Every structure is written in C-alpha cells, then in structure tokens.
Amino acid sequence: MNDLQGKVVIVTGGAAGIGRASALRFAGAGARVVVADRDEDAARAVAAGIVEAGGEALGLRVDVSRDEDCAAMVDATQRHFGGLDIAFNNAGVSGRIARTEDQGLDNWHAVLGVNLTGVFQCMVHELRAMKAHGGVIVNTASVAGVKGAPYSAAYCASKHGVIGLTRAAAKEYGKYGIRINAVCPGYIRTAMADEIAAGSAQGSSEALVAAAALRRSADPEEVAELVVWLSSAKASFVTGAHYVVDGGLSA
C-alpha cells in the first residue's frame, strides 16, 4: 500500500527545479500538495498541472523570509486540507558570487534570511502543526553545507546552518513522532545551480561535472526521489541525517 496516499505535503520553492520535481513526485504518489513559492503565478501553474492530472493541490504565494507568510502558509494548508503531514523546506537563493570580503552585509542578510531563517520560520509553524500526530520534515541544504564553497560565503554558511538546525530539531522532536532530515544536492540542472557553478572554484558547470565521480550532473527528479523516500514509511527509522546527492563531487 502507498503510505503517501492522502498525506498533506507543503513544498516551498515549489514552482521550479527540485521543488517542482518534488511536488509532482509527491502528487504522483497520491499526496495532496501545497506548492508555495514567491512566484505566485508559477506556483499556481504547478498546482493546476497537478489538479489537471487528477491530483489535489493548492498554489500559494509565500516569501519564507517573512514569518507572517510562513504562518499563513501552514494555516492555509490546515484549513484547505485539514492538516499537515509532511513539509519539504526547499526555498533558497544563491546570493552574490564574490570574495568573502566583498560579500556585503546586505547579501549576507538576504541569503541567510531565506536559506536559514526561512527554514527555521517554516519549521516553527510546521512543528506546532505536527506535534499532536507526528510528521516528517525535509530541509534542503547543499553540498556546500558539508564542504567549503569559495566565493559563496553567505550561501555556504546558510547551508551549514540548515544541517545544524535539522540535527538539533530532530533530537528535540523525535519524541513527538516527527522525523527531520536534510538533503544536500550537488550540481543539479536548475537555474540556481548554474548561477552557483559560474562562481564556484571550478568556474563552470562543465568543470563541476568533470569533478564529480559520476562525471555528470543530475536532474531535479533524482533529488525528488530521495525527498519522497525520506518522507515515506520506508525511512521510518531515519532522522537527524543529511544525505549528499552530488555524484561523488565531495567524496
């Protein structure tokens, strides 16, 4: 039996890339999906596609750097679908590609505001919604969360922070039946990954591919498969972990 059938799932950053692929994969498994993104039209378009395919979905405009948006997202999810079972906190930004001394406080605050504070704010409201019955949270970190990422100090720091936040919360909320894990993508074929690749130590997406053990990049759907697995009963004893999906780039 498909244990995701009828589950209610939030996907932030759900309008494109890994978020979109995950929203579609959850819907394909029978889950009811809230597609949340700063791009409201794109979020609604993904949700509409799910509905047209016979699924259930809701598209919402959400800026995760705004706590009121995070609270409203969880509230709207509960009102529309009657609860919340799974959350994939995936929204993120790449930030400025520059030496650390040139990153700038404006960039630092903007990147951490989405990538780390945004995940924290979403989790606060998601955890409160899940405490009574349990649930699953998956956060998007990055291969830059487990190694250094030259010229991306703010991004690198934010993704290291996501892993720490994930592990701390997993220790706290296991007793409530809530599992919390992180995924750490490497070079995935998305617009944001291309931005990061251009400013990486390797200098280009082609060089990043050459540096990976598998000598290729990945499709967003390959990360989505891991996200869905972590959200399923097949991963029932997995919490507080971070999974690197980088084709051996960081090996």
TrEMBL record:
Pfam families: adh_short_C2. Its EC number is 1.1.1.47. One of its GO terms (molecular function) is glucose 1-dehydrogenase [NAD(P)+] activity. Keywords: Oxidoreductase. The keyword Oxidoreductase applies. Belongs to the short-chain dehydrogenases/reductases (SDR) family. NCBIfam families: PRK07231.1. This is Glucose 1-dehydrogenase. It comes from Paraburkholderia silviterrae.
